[in-house]
Model the fold of this input.
Amino acid sequence: MGANFITGTGTDIGKTWLCCALLQHWRQQGLSPRAYKPVLSGFAAATAMTGDAGQLLTALGEGMDQLDAIAPWRFAAPLSPDMAAAREGRRIDFDELVSFTRRAANREAVRPEAARRGWADFSPTLIEGVGGVMVPLDDRHTVRDWIAAAGLPCVLVAGSYLGTLSHTLTALEALEKVGVGVTAIALNESPESPVELIETAAVLARHAAVPVISIARADPAPGIARLAALLA
Done:
């Protein structure tokens, strides 16, 4: 079990929720997973605990003293990272971001009891992206470029809302175009969607050459377990 990049078809699609669910699943199995949210827009110190990075730290059983370690690039404006950074007279150094991601992906974090169970080579690590696949990070690079440069497989998170078929297949094609391996599409059930989750998953499965994992709101555990098994 190595490192996987969690990306999405757009913003507010459920990337952080999915990461937290996977982290909790692995911890229940006796593993000590790691998670990182290197780039974070819309950060407010007053609500940091309930923000994306704070939720990841809670799921990891860690405190806010680890915020800098998992989310070093934080910006206040809830905009694309390039725009949010510009508001503060800053920029994201793409090469530095890629180097950070590679170091995070190679970090081992396995409890002794996990090693005794034969999981010594398994160190589940999640790198959560920002926004969607094609969100700009600077004048030349997008999240897609970040994933490709880091050399990580990814999970593409999508919703089940009306219109998700085009959004998801377009994002999938964009990733495949630059050689990014997509382990699975995680289909999060969108609230009040006029389309049934199972129906959307079936259509996606006919068009996508990767597994489509349905995650129901009422009972997400089976979908999370299936996805966790794929990432192993």
About this structure: The longest helix spans residues 15-28. The chain has one domain: 3-231. The CA atoms of residues 153 and 181 lie 5 Å apart. The radius of gyration is 17 Å.
